[in-house]
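> forwarded from #structure-qc
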C-alpha cells in the first residue's frame, strides 16, 4: 500500500468523522479499502488453528451463543447478557460495505466481528468512540492493520482539536482540565490498550465455546486479559464529556 493512499484515506476519515456519532458505514468502508491484502494474510494465518474449521463448517459463534442456556456467573451467561444489552449489530452494518468473494470469507469476517465484540466485553470497553479506540489499540497488538493505525492516527489529531478547540472542554478546575485533557487521556488509553493486547492471547485463535461454562474472571485469567485500570478511572468523566460533545453538536 502506498503512503499517498494511506495519507489520503486517513485525511478523509479525519474530515468525515465526529466525536459523538461516527458513521459506521464510512468506518467499515475505510477499513476494507486499506486492509484488502492484510486481511487475507491474517485469514490464512488463522486457518491454521482448529477454531477456523469450526467457523467454516458450523453455525456462527454468535448464533450458538444466543441459542444456548448457561448458568449464572459463567462466561457464556455474562457474554450472552452483554449481547442482549447491546443493540448495535456491527456485522450487518459492515456487510453493507463489502462483498465477500465466497462463503468462507464471509464466515471469517463474521468471526472477526464476534472477536471485536468479545474484546469489548472482556475489557469492559463501552461502544462509544473512545471505547472503539481501546478495542483497536488492543487488537492492533496482535493484528497489524493499516486501517486501525490510520484510525488511531487520525483520532490523535481529533484529540488535539478537542484539547485546544473553542468550547470543547466543559467548565472545570484547572487540575481536572489537565488531568482529563483529551490528548493526554487519549495517549494513555491507546498505550494501555496496546499493552493489554500484547499480553493477551490472540482471541481469533481461541475456541470460546470451550470456555462458556467457566466463571468470567477465570476466562480473563486464562486469556491473559488484565484489568483496564486507567480506562476504568477515566470512563466516568469521559461519559460526561461525551454528553457535552453531543450538546455542543445540537447547538450548532
Amino acid at each position: 500500500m502506498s503512503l499517498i493512499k494511506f495519507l489520503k484515506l486517513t485525511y478523509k476519515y479525519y474530515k468525515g468523522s465526529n466525536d459523538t456519532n461516527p458513521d459506521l458505514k464510512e468506518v467499515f468502508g475505510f477499513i476494507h479499502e486499506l486492509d484488502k491484502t492484510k486481511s487475507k494474510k491474517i485469514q490464512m494465518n488463522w486457518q491454521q488453528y482448529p477454531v477456523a474449521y469450526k467457523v467454516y463448517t458450523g453455525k456462527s459463534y454468535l448464533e450458538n451463543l444466543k441459542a444456548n442456556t448457561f448458568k449464572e456467573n459463567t462466561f457464556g451467561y455474562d457474554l450472552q447478557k452483554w449481547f442482549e444489552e447491546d443493540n448495535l449489530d456491527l456485522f450487518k452494518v459492515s456487510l453493507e460495505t463489502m462483498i465477500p468473494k465466497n462463503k468462507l470469507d464471509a464466515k471469517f469476517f463474521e468471526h472477526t466481528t464476534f472477536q471485536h465484540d468479545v474484546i469489548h466485553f472482556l475489557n469492559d470497553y463501552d461502544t462509544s468512540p473512545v471505547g472503539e479506540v481501546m478495542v483497536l489499540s488492543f487488537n492492533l497488538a496482535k493484528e497489524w492493520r493499516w486501517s486501525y493505525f490510520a484510525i488511531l492516527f487520525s483520532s490523535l489529531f481529533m484529540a488535539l482539536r478537542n484539547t485546544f478547540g473553542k468550547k470543547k472542554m466543559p467548565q472545570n478546575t484547572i487540575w481536572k482540565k489537565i488531568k482529563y485533557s483529551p490528548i493526554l487521556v487519549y495517549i494513555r488509553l491507546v498505550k494501555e490498550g496496546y499493552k493489554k493486547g500484547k499480553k493477551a492471547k490472540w482471541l481469533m485463535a481461541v475456541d470460546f465455546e470451550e470456555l462458556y461454562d467457566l466463571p468470567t474472571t477465570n476466562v480473563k485469567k486464562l486469556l491473559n486479559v488484565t484489568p483496564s485500570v486507567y480506562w476504568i478511572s477515566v470512563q466516568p468523566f469521559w461519559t460526561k464529556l461525551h454528553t457535552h460533545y453531543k450538546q455542543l453538536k445540537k447547538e450548532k
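QC bot note: The chain has one domain: 3-251. Residues 38 and 144 are 8 Å apart (CA to CA).
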